[in-house]
Amino acid sequence: MNCKKAAGLLLRALDGRLGEKERRQMEAHLLGCASCRAREKEYREVLDLLRPGRVPEPLPHFETRLMAKLKESERARAVLVWPRWAARAAAACFLVGLFSAPAFFFFNLESL
Ligand SMILES: [Zn+2]
What we know:
Bound molecules: zinc ion
Oligomer: single chain
Helix content: over 70%
Structural class: mainly alpha
Number of helices: 4
Number of strands: 0
Radius of gyration: 35 Å
Number of domains: 2
Largest sheet: none
């Protein structure tokens, strides 16, 4: 078996889906090939991470750091609400002025 064939069979080997002959060939190849052994180790580690039911432990002080970030985010959001509200009020005033100006101008002409 060469490295290319071993790489193609590696996932099946890790799942236990190789036939007896291929399994023995793979084991023999892995014994003599350091790069394929390294690849097998990487695949095995990735498969271990993807295994269902495996929940990684949170880092130390995770909850403390999370709560600090949440408070910081809430403060930032509160600051952003006022400019948004002020922009809407300014737009509303502009529209009221825009639509009432012609009427005001028209009434002033009739009074002359
Ligand atoms: Zn190899």
